[in-house]
Amino acid sequence: MNYSLVILGAPYSTQSTTTALNFTKALLKNGHNVYRVFFYHDAVHNGSELSRPPQDELDISTEWKKLKNEHDIDLVICIAAAVKRGVLDNNEALRHEKKSSNLSNSFELSGLGQLVDATEHSDRVITFGP
Amino acid sequence: MNSNAIKARKKVLVILTQSPYGNALSREAIDYCLAAAAFEQDLTLLFTGDAVLQLINDQNPSTINQKDLTKTLSALPIYGINQFYVDSNALEQYGIDNDFCVPTIKVDVKEISELLVNADTILNF
Amino acid sequence: MNMSTKNPELNTDKEGFLKNINDWTPEAANFIAESEGITLTDEHWEVINILRDFYQQFEISPAMRILVKTIKESLGEEKGNSIHLMNLFPGSPAKLASKIAGLPKPTNCL
Amino acid sequence: MKTLHIVNKSPEKPSIMERCLNFSSKGDSLLLIEDAAYFALPSTISKITSRLDALQIKIYALEEDLVARGINKKIHGSIQIVNYEGFVELTTTHNKSSSWY
User: Across the interface, which of C60, C64, C109 has its CB nearest the CB of B72?
Assistant: First the structure.
């Protein structure tokens, strides 16, 4: 089956992201397809390249990176929610005249149209609340 | 940007549960609705719990440095979204009625269950 | 591109959007338009005024489809179409007209 | 058209579960994840079991969240334990899901 996930909770502040990560792994293990993971609300912080948990804690950013590399899943961060909260790619940094960008290259900033598209093209949409 | 890029066909139920200013999800839900409308998605909105408080007229959140959510909500009909279902129990709980920023349809528990049954996809904000 | 050479008081970003939308005045609109190679006519102003009213009422910048619809409602079929808007504000009319009307910069949300 | 209801907030916010149960239909299922795992304790679940039974709603709890919280051996007998693969399975056997938080 084709799945899309909507993640709303901030990583490290809520369980939302780790629950979604484990769910994604279980999906892939069971032969399902992940059409898109859409990060909205405080979950946009998942996109920051700069987060660094202590070595004895799960590095969520590395987990997404692995999934991206191994399964090429589509990790999309809502551009408006991200820019507002300080998660920017090069384009947005230039556009808003910020001196640096911080989006990890596993992710892509895009619009809410990507979430609309995901609801249309997925058999299941699972929301991971904050 | 091309609104024909997606041929919308699914019935999406957006369930709103958050109060207007204590949580940004209320505004982010409306932002989703505006985007969905641009792609002509078949959208139904259900306001339940604290989300019924979003509908109260005469809000003036400039006092707390926020934009007026009712102004944006009232744009939704222009975007073609007209199905605003409101949980009558939640209205009763807060003792509010009528005088809302959009025309609403009051629904009871049974009718709300039907909304869930009839949806293809549910998004919870 | 930089407005400061033409109008020292007008604080715009690199894309020509006002940094503070409260700085908007009809004169500011003329300056922004000029930097985009547009000389504002009455027909431009009809659209600008409608956009500003729309923003006043809803606190959002309308998507193109909604802008066309809104203009059609107040100015009729002849002007409420994308060709007319493309002629007035070439490229992406909703974005360019919003910039001149002093609305917030779009969030690239679609 | 069956719905999988996913709850993730602790019983301290009772209105969330209340809403979830109010809007459920016969034959739907309820999955307790994250802090909602505490609903699986006998003293909390017993407050809603009669309503769950009346609606013939099956109730599941996510094993990893139960174990993490030290309550996997303390839960009420009516609750079925599922791991993440069971969670995935539940999303395939229901047409859609609704997350209450």
Answer: C60
